[in-house]
Design brief:
Layout: H1 32-39, E1 53-56, H2 67-75, E2 80-81, H3 82-89, H4 93-105, E3 109-112, H5 123-135
Antiparallel strand pairs: 1-2, 1-3
């Protein structure tokens, strides 16, 4: 037995469909041609990690900057990671790395790469931790 279906007293009108913008209502997400225009035809990339900090030399974009580059420069007034920039710009990380590569070559931004620690920790530190744990 199926339960009775409830009906609304005042049925809502179905909202009209929204017209799709250049990227289907999202910046950079739905249209592959848009990503090609943002990233450029060559698609070369610098060795940028998700945690690489990006800092703008000047927050004022040059007149030749694309809208994405101008937004990136405004965001990078304070250091931000490449992953944060990708999220704020609503662009895939691969497109952001291509943008950052172009901007690094033009010296509009600086990249601060993460510090890589030595592969093996100091033996004396490990022994001190081991002796401290044995005393517990």
């Amino acid at each position: 037995m199926t339960p009775p279906q409830r009906q609304r007293r005042f049925p809502r009108a179905v909202p009209p469909p929204r017209p799709a913008g250049p990227a289907g209502g999202k910046r950079g997400g739905g249209n592959p041609e848009r990503l090609y225009v943002v990233a450029g035809p060559d698609g070369e990339r610098a060795d940028i990690d998700l945690v690489t900090l990006i800092v703008a030399g000047s927050p004022d974009p040059p007149p030749s900057a694309t809208p994405e580059q101008a937004a990136l420069l405004r965001l990078c007034a304070a250091p931000l990671s490449a992953a944060e920039l990708s999220a704020y710009l609503n662009l895939p990380f691969s497109a952001v790395t291509v943008l950052l590569t172009e901007m690094l070559a033009a010296e509009l931004v600086q990249a601060r790469f993460p510090i890589v620690r030595k592969a093996l920790p100091d033996r004396s530190l490990l022994e001190a931790v081991m002796h401290g744990l044995q005393r517990l």
